[in-house]
Amino acid sequence: MSTIHSKRAARFVADAEKTSWHDATFWSVREKRDKMAQQLPEWEDLREHASQIKKHTITHLADYLEQFSDSLESRGVKVHWAKDAAEFNETVLSILQSHGVTKMVKSKSMLTEECEMNPYLEQHGIDVVETDLGERIIQLLHQKPSHIVMPAIHLKREEVGRMFEEKGISKEKGNYDPTYLTHCARLHLRDQFMQAGAGMTGCNFGVAATGDCVVCTNEGNADMTTSMPKLHIVAMGIEKLVPDYKSLAVFQRLLCRSATGQPTTAFTSHFRQARPGGEMHVVLVDNGRSDMLADTEHWQTLKCMRCGACINTCPVYRRSGGYSYTYFIPGPVGVNLGMLRDPRKYSDNVSACTLCLSCDNVCPSKVGPGSQIYVWRQSLEKLGKADKLKKAMSAGMEYLFDRPAIYTTALKFAPLANYVPDCLTNIGNINAWGIGHAMPEFAKKSFHELWKEGKVK
Amino acid sequence: MRVGLFVPCYVDALYPEAGVATYKLLKHYGLDVEYPERQTCCGQPMANAGFQDKSMKVIESFDELFKDYDYIVAPSASCAAYVKVYYPKILKGKHECVSSGKIMDIVEFLHDVLKVKEVPGKFPHPVSVHNSCHGVRELNLSSPSECNVKPFNKIIDLLQLVDGITIHEPERKDECCGFGGMFSIEEPAVSTRMGEEKIRRHIATGAEYVTGPDSSCLMHMAGIAKKEKMPIKFIHVVQILAAGL
Amino acid sequence: MKKEDFLNKLRQNTHFQYDMPKEEIKGIEYEDTFEQFVRMTETVGGHVINDVRKDADLNELVRRAYPDAKVFCSNLKGITLEGLKGGNDSTALELRNPDTVAEANDLNGTDVAIVQGTVGVAENGCIWIPQTMKEKALLFISEYLVIVLNRKNIVNNMHDAYDRIGMDDRYNFGTFISGPSKTADIEQALVIGAQAARGVTVVLVDE
């Protein structure tokens, strides 16, 4: 019965203080998001619009992609089509190699995580430098992001400071002040930007009508990434398209408010042409997205814009951390994306959810990640991934609830369970309820019995 | 108006007093209430665990058993929500779902259908309201804290009619308590941690009782509070509304 | 992969199609749009110079805002080395031109860049800056950024903004900037000045 998530989560929760900090940190992001939502009378309308625009775009994706690529090509941008992670990685490598690039700076991109691009490029001799502060920190620590928007959130300032000292990024021993450390990183990254032969960005939104690749950051690192090197490569999942500026306005307004509770990111940059004397490449990536489109139950997960709001509000994520999940994206949307990626490999995460549905309510494009988890659970048995004990319990309930006479009899004897001594119910593996709870007491007489005896009046 | 009373399985076995209070309250308002004896469960426990197919027979019987009533009333927001939201999807393609349009949680029924302006209850205690997830996000018993909608709370509207009561809401008024059906046994560490936090926030209001429309959440929290000897009691909201009957 | 195969698979896998929403969003409108813009700019960490006289000299305003700065960068007509020096030839200042520097790297070490914004957005403090210079790096590499904006070009929200923005055909780049570069990646502690400008001053003018 114990899933990998539940075991890792138990270890996480064992550090009560860190759990409190983690929970409070993300709850405060959720509160900031709520405040943003409250300040706009049109908030719920925006969400509905975003959902409808995405549904429209995703179901007309081929047309919009043609429009988008035509527009880019008309200004000399080279557009590449990658069917999967391998093709994507190869495409990027060949662009870099044809330009003799050995160092590439990049801004944050969940797509490159998904395709495991960095290790691939590194194997081929490319020095890939993450430039988002959080991403850079975990890159230097050889870790994975624990959150899609705040990738280094699991680390304390001391851990960052000590690593910066080791790498020579920080000179003042024992100074772990976040402002100081950030400024050390600023200087360290400034050199990287100036030395790199190429810059890669993700793409928050692609505008079909104009060919704009829109990248949103708070640090301005995507802009540094694209202002210094002459070669700009955009890594873009095909679901990132929106039809036009009118639609883009809806998403720009929702993204950062939902993600971090700010009214906007500090930088919302529109790229659609190489900078003077440079080259721009856009790599459009499918990597399973066209199959998601064909999935009649789960295709709307493609509406997700990776804001992380569902992760922040998830009471289970807040108390189990990003590393408890087996897919690289944690929380409600990560559970869904993992299942869409490989349901047999990532089925473990679908039980890490109370179905509280808070995520459905915060999602700016109405993906319904919580409701979708319910649907995924129904497919576990087909996948051969159903939990045996849960199945046995459900089968027991099916038997009992379908036979009112037996059910009534069972109720009659249920109070006997009250006489089972507590010590017997506290054996974790046999009775997980007993780990945290005292046993509930069965009523001396059930409602059924009281009714039969005429005592309900 | 004919009302079919649905007393969900665990209320039946563990908290019959919530069922009795519901019956008494409905009778108090002069309604024709019946309790179909062949009822058992709505099917949610199996379905949430991933075995919706194992709840199919129960769902079919439920829909048949209650088909002739004007309303089906249950003292359990989560079970009512399951019938209302999920039954039509599950029965789609088989036959029309009758019960989903008739099911109501008792709070919803009193507030929206009967529109009661008085309740018999007297309850001179401070209470902290437990806005359970499915009550909030599936049945709309109160405005969800995530949404930009006009604030409302049907549970509090009703409790305000009770003589002598003091009403509080905890911080994070509709955050999950961590029960989640089989979640509580599959993820005991996180489930318990969530429950502890929720109970502490209820206690911090100064309340003597936690009250809410879902005995399942109350059972979860009561189990933790008892084990950890936390000083607070739990009572279904319908028992407060019916207190004295 | 071939574009045709890529698109064909998408077409084959699309089972039903949805329409765009019928009605347009009605974006928030503020009672005092100008005041909201000023407040938001300050909320996101920017400074506002709002009391500019008609005949004021932009050079002087910049110098007053950043008295310790030595290296400036701009291609705005109103910004000149003489103007920045304010008639005092003994002051050691440098003015760089983003149109004539050989490489973007040459702009490293710029203290203050002065640029023109074309649309300001009240709801979030965003200012649209189309690239009108060879090296857009000055927008990001400078320690501080001064954005000149005509107060008539302030709109309520992003819907209005996206109706109005444009790009220079030579460069086809533009960016909304809202306050200085920032991060909260270490323990969620807000730090101003991550990779780009550490401070932003918005100069609101009438012309």
Describe this structure in words.
The complex is a heterotrimer of chains A (457), B (245) and C (207). Chain A is α/β, with parallel strands linked by helices and 457 residues long. Chain A is built from 24 helices and ten strands. Chain A has three domains: 4-30 and 308-379, no CATH class; 45-155 and 197-290, Rossmann fold; 403-452, no CATH class. In chain A, the strands form two sheets. In chain A, strands 1-10-7-4-2-3 form a six-stranded parallel β-sheet, sandwiched between helices. In chain A, strand 5 and strand 6 form a beta hairpin. The mean pLDDT of chain A is 94. Chain B is α/β, with parallel strands linked by helices. Chain B has two domains: 2-113, no CATH class; 126-241, Rossmann fold, CATH 3.40.50. Chain B is 43% helix and 12% strand. Chain B has helices at 9-14, 16-28, 44-48, 56-65, 77-91, 106-113, 133-137, 154-159, 183-186, 188-203, 215-227, 237-241; strands at 2-5, 32-34, 71-74, 103-105, 126-129, 166-168, 209-212, 233-236. In chain B, 63% of the residues are buried. Chain C has one domain (32-205): Rossmann fold. Chain C has helices spanning 3-13, 33-43, 58-65, 81-85, 138-141, 158-164, and strands at residues 47-49, 71-73, 94-96, 112-116, 119-121, 127-130, 144-150, 154-155, 173-177, 182-183, 191-192, 199-205. A six-stranded parallel β-sheet of chain C has the order 1-12-7-4-2-3. A four-stranded mixed β-sheet of chain C has the order 8-5-6-9. The chains are: A alpha/beta (457), B alpha/beta (245), C alpha/beta (207). At the A-C interface, helix 2, helix 3, helix 4, strand 1 and helix 8 of A face helix 1, helix 5, helix 6, strand 9 and strand 10 of C.
